[in-house]
Each structure stands twice: as structure tokens, then as C-alpha cells.
Specification:
single chain
Length: about 150
């Protein structure tokens, strides 16, 4: 397992966010990886998946494993046009879309990205209201992922 495999699994989940699939938005029609979103030039709606620099941490808590246990953070930002007078409901819908598509725990069990990782947990969520006179807002979901890193092919 590598960070790139996790990124791809999250991209596939995020791409499902389409109104035709029962979501509130079509943000999944444009999923970007590692890009800083430019509210002046980038197409809306969109999802940007990033990872903080130097984020993957080695966890030395399993002396019997030959594969290093890693913990890493992935940030999913959903960007969309919102109602200037009442942006919060639009951002709540976008946050719900991100959570419903990308974070799927079952009762008493963490999300494992379909068996791809040991555990994926919700770290935080936030919403960025549009600036005065603007109509672009952002909903963010931060996920912490635990996995065994494999090296080489």
C-alpha cells in the first residue's frame, strides 16, 4: 500500500458525487489532486484532494509486523457556487456529499477504503463562507488513514 493508492481510492469515491447518483451536487465531475484551487479561474463545482507536506508518520507500535505502520492525512475540499444571501445550506449539502461518498464507516468498525487501509477516521470538517459579494464557498473534510506501507513494486 502506498499513499498514491489511497489517493486513487479517494478520487474514485469523490468522482461518484453527482446529482444523477443521488447527491446534492455535481462536484465529482471535476476531481483534482494536489492542486491549489483558484476561485478566480477554476471551474465549479470541483473537489480537490490534497495531503499536507511531510504528513505520513511512521508508527512503531507493532513489533511483529515487517511492514511499517503509517498514519497519513488526506484533505478533501469541495468548492461550489452558493447562494450569497444564504450560503450555509449549500455548504452543508456539499459537506454531506463529501462525507457520504468518501467516508463510509460501519457500526463499530472504521472505514477501510474497501480493505485498502487498516482504518480511515474522520479528523475534522469545516466550511469556508464566501467573501462579501462573492458566491464561492468551500466545505472541507479531513481524513486520517492508517496503513501498512509497502516499498518497491
Amino acid at each position: 500500500m502506498k499513499d498514491k493508492d489511497i489517493l486513487e481510492a479517494l478520487r474514485v469515491r469523490a468522482a461518484q458525487i453527482l446529482i444523477a447518483n443521488g447527491y446534492h451536487t455535481d462536484a465529482g465531475a471535476r476531481v483534482l489532486q494536489g492542486k491549489v484551487f483558484d476561485t478566480q479561474t477554476d471551474t465549479l463545482p470541483a473537489i480537490v484532494i490534497t495531503q499536507p507536506e511531510d504528513d505520513a508518520d511512521y508508527v512503531d507500535d507493532d513489533e511483529t509486523s515487517t511492514e511499517p505502520q503509517m498514519v497519513s492525512t488526506f484533505v478533501l475540499e469541495g468548492w461550489r457556487e452558493v447562494d450569497q444571501a444564504n450560503p450555509l445550506p449549500d455548504l452543508m449539502d456539499l459537506r454531506e456529499d463529501l462525507l457520504r461518498a468518501c467516508y463510509r464507516p460501519t457500526p463499530d468498525l472504521p472505514d477501510t477504503l474497501g480493505g485498502t487501509v487498516s482504518a480511515m477516521r474522520l479528523d475534522s470538517t469545516t466550511k469556508l463562507m464566501p467573501a462579501p459579494g462573492a458566491s464561492i464557498g468551500m466545505a472541507q473534510v479531513v481524513l486520517r488513514v492508517e496503513y501498512h506501507e509497502t516499498f518497491g513494486d
